[in-house]
């Protein structure tokens, strides 16, 4: 599956799950400039319904700088959710982020489009892929509410699972999509967009 | 103070410039002057007189730049340093350029006026600049003493400018050639000759501009008329300064002393109830140059830890130390009133609240978050501003971005990313369409090869980034007209109309694709103008 639409699905899922709880603090995105060029930049028109529109976007030259910016953001105490587009974060870097996030009571998420090679200190690892959307109520040709195929691959709590989730366009809540016969969960060759979440 | 760079003790050297009749000499070194050459002489004549004369063409602005660098360096002797361009026109160097340093109230720090001037001359000589120095109560008198006194440094005792200037030639009054000629006709050669003459008679005799100038310059030199100096750099009201016996050679030394200076500066600011909005760390190099960097603050602050952290993020090593720094100064050129405010009743948690923030949340955010659940507390906002300060200091202000909105239907124009430090914008009234906008936007849009079933319909298949996708569902079009009021010229073709489609492929990827142009659009050429397809964004 193409990574580009996977990133969009991951962002959508991420903001749907964290939007309500973190609203009192800022959303921060740190990404290398090359990433923003290739994957597209965040448009708050798309984010606005999930999040307030005060977003801090840090466009860095390298991934190392992006990691540094994330850690600064978490340690400052002003950031409720920090999203980093960092492919190659070492175990040490993720552990630092984890500690900073725990100290600040914030959440940090690393977006990855390739299967991770290194170990990670992440609390949870989600894999998100787009899924054909629900039928539109009035137009059979149009796409309806977005659906994602979400797998919790790793979790410190020991829980894991796979779901097809649908986002309600009115309330932005997530709910389980109806299980139709052709929605067999078969993840072998599908998404390579992985989401790590810690904190 | 008048300074001239030396060209070593070698032979005669001159700078030449293009005059009305060929090359003329524009600047001479002492050796050339000793050979009898003078300014404005033709280059050919000079070469005949002194065959060994070496010349170089004048580079425009170079002398001024050097003088300006010296002015920055000379700030260590006084808060206000003004450039004196001499009376040179363009490309005309009379060798009268110099600097004015306001040393009022500073001399005792150096152990007296004589010690200050001695320190100044030694340091300049060490840096390879020969300087003549004069010190007096008025800029005019100091100018005269620096250039025409018998020995340097020349100091006029307080209030004794009149006697100190009496023996100097009238040229020392900074007069135009016309005025000098006039005085020469009357046989007035020394400044002292003017004292005895009755003022009324002088004014009557020296009518016109030249005559007025004589009286004005005399009064300015003697302190009867004010003469304000305009500093090269606006003097910072608050600074901490430290001179070192041994030059600092490493960034560690700068860090160590810089932190002490921060504490000193913060103590001064606290005493005045102010906070810094910008701090500048200036290093004075042993070779007579300065090196500096600055850090901006979004919220006025006098917290030493925060300022030290900002300077550290900026990097102490940004100072180009050359052969060492012999003085270091931390100044706060921009300050703001900063009142103490108490946030909690325990009394331990006292914070400092500024009057206004440079980057507060935009108005619409304030409006939306007003009241209950979303309201941000001031503590979070303060932490945010500090975070932005730190990020901007380390990554540059262009790396820390926030969305700004504009009234436009073109998506990439409607919402742009701008540096956080810029003033926040109001959100455009397009919020109703916001939920039909993608979450990721490609700027610029990427080309797509699309096949549509109908010329005006949605694509049935498209290829983007070399992957072909079959469209399972599509909705649209949403037609967005270009901003007709933005056109390069009235005759220019307006930008093409865009038809946006929301597509979903078989795997569930959701795309925002647009067709630019219409099939039957009239083009300049008879060939039918085919519209093009573009990928503009992705939906979650």
List strands and helices in order, with pairings.
The complex is a heterodimer of chains A (199) and B (540).
Chain A: H1 3-18, E1 26-32, H2 33-39, E2 41-42, H3 44-47, E3 55-60, H4 63-76, E4 79-84, H5 91-104, E5 107-112, E6 124-131, E7 147-155, E8 161-167, E9 174-176, E10 194-198
Helix pairs in contact in A: 4-5
Chain B: E1 2-5, E2 13-19, E3 22-28, H1 30-34, H2 43-49, E4 54-57, H3 62-73, E5 80-84, E6 98-102, H4 113-126, E7 129-132, E8 134-135, H5 139-148, E9 154-155, H6 161-165, H7 177-185, H8 191-195, H9 199-205, H10 208-222, E10 238-248, H11 251-272, E11 274-285, E12 290-301, H12 304-314, E13 325-342, E14 350-354, H13 363-369, H14 378-395, E15 400-405, H15 411-414, E16 415-419, E17 440-452, E18 459-464, E19 467-480, E20 498-505, E21 510-516, E22 532-539
Parallel strand pairs in B: 2-4, 8-9
Antiparallel strand pairs in B: 1-7, 2-3, 5-6, 10-13, 11-12, 11-13, 13-14, 15-16, 17-18, 17-22, 18-19, 19-20, 20-21, 21-22
Helix pairs in contact in B: 5-10, 7-10, 11-12, 12-14
Structure notes:
The complex is a heterodimer of chains A (199) and B (540). With 199 residues, chain A is of the alpha/beta class. Chain A has one domain: P-loop containing nucleotide triphosphate hydrolases (Rossmann fold), CATH 3.40.50.300. Chain A contains 5 helices and 10 strands; from the N terminus they run αβαβαβαβαββββββ. Chain A has a 9-stranded mixed sheet with strand order 3-1-4-5-10-6-7-8-9, sandwiched between helices. In chain A, α4 (63-76) runs parallel beside α5 (91-104). Residues 183-194 of chain A have low confidence and may be disordered. The radius of gyration of chain B is 34 Å and the shape is elongated. Chain B contains 15 helices and 22 strands. Chain B has helices spanning 30-34, 43-49, 62-73, 113-126, 139-148, 161-165, 177-185, 191-195, 199-205, 208-222, 251-272, 304-314, 363-369, 378-395, 411-414; strands at 2-5, 13-19, 22-28, 54-57, 80-84, 98-102, 129-132, 134-135, 154-155, 238-248, 274-285, 290-301, 325-342, 350-354, 400-405, 415-419, 440-452, 459-464, 467-480, 498-505, 510-516, 532-539. Chain B is α+β, with helices and mostly antiparallel strands. Among the domains of chain B are: 59-222, no CATH class; 238-342, DNA polymerase, Y-family, little finger domain (Dna Ligase, domain 1), CATH 3.30.1490.100; 438-539, no CATH class. In chain B, strands 17-18-19-20-21-22 form a 6-stranded antiparallel beta barrel. In chain B, strands 10, 11, 12, 13 and 14 form a 5-stranded antiparallel sheet that branches. In chain B, a hairpin with a 2-residue loop joins β18 (459-464) and β19 (467-480). At the A-B interface, α1, β2, α3, β3 and α4 of A face α13, α14, β15, β17 and β19 of B.
